[in-house]
Amino acid sequence: MGALLMSVVLYGCGGKDASLTDNGMAFLMQQDYKAAIASFEQAILAKENLEENYRGAGLAYMGIGDYEAAVDAFDKALSYAGMFPGEMEYDINYYMAIAYYKMEEYDAAISIYDAIIEMRPKDTNAYFLRGSMKLYLQDVDAAILDFNQAVQMDKKNYSIYLDVYDCLKEHGYDAQAQGYLDQILLADSQGFSEYDKGRLAYYNGEYQKACNYLEHVRQEGKADVKLIMLLGECYKLQGFYEYAAVVYDAYVSEVPDPEIYNQMGLCYVEQGNYAAALSAFQRGIEIKENNTCLQTLKLNEIACYEYMYEFDMAAQRMQEYLAVYPSNEELEKEYAFLTTR
Fold it and tell me: For position 11, what pLDDT does the model report?
């Protein structure tokens, strides 16, 4: 599951009265979420297409990380749906499930996937995602039933096997995960995408081969955060931190992403280039909306100031950090050390 955001499905409105809705969608695509919310709220007051505008507001609230408001907006959107669910209702349910996941309300997310599967019994993605939610509830047997249903319905889609492997490994179910990987190893590789070939090479410890496949996908302009993270990891596992940093930097120059900035900073730390690392962490911190690794970035910023012997700045940043985030004994000791330097 990782980080949303966000492939937005656009729905046409038509007519002169759609201008507020169009403005909201334009702001949404530009990731100007506050402006999008304001436009959608105006459109709602003007009684424009209420289902579409509440949906848009929900997406914008997700963009700023207000998942509770997003769920409320999606719920209101569905209240204006027609008698028979269609593409938009299906789409709204998917986003609502993601919002519940972000709030760690896994039972609620499962109930949404139940509804999606009822609407579309052959939706493999819904089975996979419902299974992934069940793992958070430690119901691995029920999760595997969903995973098996997903792979059975699309046996030649090898990405699903690898997604299941990833998911099970992430939750510590290594033996169950290996079973799905074994099925991939026995399959005809002619059906694999280059991205999946790269993933498989990575799982097999063939990091250079993985880089070759993933670099080809990147050169074709098809890279996303997941691919960049994996490609960078493959370079780092070979000790090529400089190459990894170049990959990260090229990506964020087009698509600023806090997680990639964090990885780029860590690469510079490994190279002993603490000034460059500090810059990367700070650029990640500047991304305020939907920044799921802000706390980590701030800790890494403090560490960089320490590496650079700038203890006053480290102490100041630590004080700011402790004013926002929960403290612990280790951080308190670190703060005490910094303030006595």
Answer: 42
Structure tokens at 161: 């096997």
Distance (Å) of CA 201 to CA 195, 206, 295 = 10, 5, 32
pLDDT of the residue at 341: 65
Q: How far is CA 26 from CA 40, 46, 55, 60, 286, in A?
A: 11, 18, 14, 11, 23
Query: What are the φ/ψ torsions at residue 324 (nearest 5 degrees)?
Result: -115, -40
Percent of the chain with pLDDT over 90: 70
Counting every residue, how long is the chain? 341
* DSSP secondary structure letter of residue 163: H
Closest CA to 232 of 254, 255, 214, 252: 214
Task: For residues 90 and 97, give the distance between their C-alpha atoms in angstroms, rounded to a whole number.
Answer: 11
Please enumerate, as own/partner, the contacts of 65-72 that have beta carbons within 8 Å and a separation of 24 or more: 65/102, 65/289, 65/290, 65/291, 65/292, 67/99, 67/100, 67/102, 67/103, 68/103, 70/95, 70/96, 70/99, 71/96, 71/99, 71/100, 71/103
Sign of the torsion angle spanned by Cα atoms 18, 21, 23, 28: negative
d(CA 135, CA 142): 8
**b/e code 262-271 from CB counts within 10 Å (16+ = b):** bbbbbbbbee
Residue 102: partners with Cβ closer than 8 Å, 6 or more residues away: 4, 62, 65, 67
DSSP state of 190: G
For 92-122, letters b (16+ CB in 10 Å) and e give: bbbbbbbbbbbeebbebbbebbebbbeeeee
